[in-house]
Amino acid sequence: MTRTAVVLFNLGGPDAPESVQPFLFNLFNDPAIIGLPGPLRWLVARLISRRRAPVAREIYANLGGKSPLLDLTREQATALEEALNGDGGDEYRAFIAMRYWHPMTLEAAERVRDWDPERVVLLPLYPQFSTTTTGSSLREWHRAADAVGLDRPTGVVCCYPRNSGLVDAQAKLIRAALAQAGPGARVLFSAHGLPKKVVDGGDPYQAQVEMTAAAVVEALALENLDWTICYQSRVGPLEWIGPSTEAEIGRAGAEKVPVVVVPIAFVSEHSETLVELDIEYRELAAEKGVPAYHRVPAVGTHPAFIAGLAGLVRGAGPGLAAEGGTRICPAAHGRCAMAA
Question: 164-295 maps to which CATH number?
């Protein structure tokens, strides 16, 4: 029997109001987020985290003062373990490695080392690859594994934007929301945005978001479905990829079209779904005259999604690969994880 450690990568979130500023500092001190030399990046991260902490604390106050992401990721880890261990064969244990708050990557690497598995599978809870999310987590994992002396054969699932379990779960949840919304509703696939220069520099995230949305629309198989992709959470002065979710809500209001909002790149509920989508954008929709606003839940522990993750883990060979083992990014995306 083989013992496999499955390491779930996620962003992390503050676990108390006093954690908000250090969480933000860790985020902005990541070179994948702010690409400045170390000492200057440290100063900028310190400044930004101080300035943003009061607003962020207000956001998390809507959630009881902390992010729910760790608790929800633990639920996903438990569900995944149950799916993997259900056949009585090899033994699997899931470990959580958060990028910017506890349990952080070094803590996860220590726990994996102490469990002493025969192999490790790294599984990001980001279906679409970006250098700012999965790429950053992978770099941090390799540093942490080296630091704790963890040396085991390791498989890496770099991305799974068209995974059948993910797509099936999304389609089922969207169908339920469309039934509530009634005829004529527009589906807004809302993903976290990125600065345009990151995508122009070869990051494949936007292309993979488009892959996911197209696969979900195909699975829905609804004739003349009105849908579009948009991007939320823009911050800072840089130009971001678009259209923005705010702009699409405004367009729907002007056209008097109900909307069904789908968090297409988030697999767990957190501040950007529970506050930004559920509170801020719902209020914006009312202001703009949108006739009805429906928000589809994140896939979370949906059985189809968990089954899809289990399949990814079982199919992960040594080394790094997208689902299916071959590169799925267009050639123009030079920062694809599988780029030569």
Answer: 3.40.50.1400
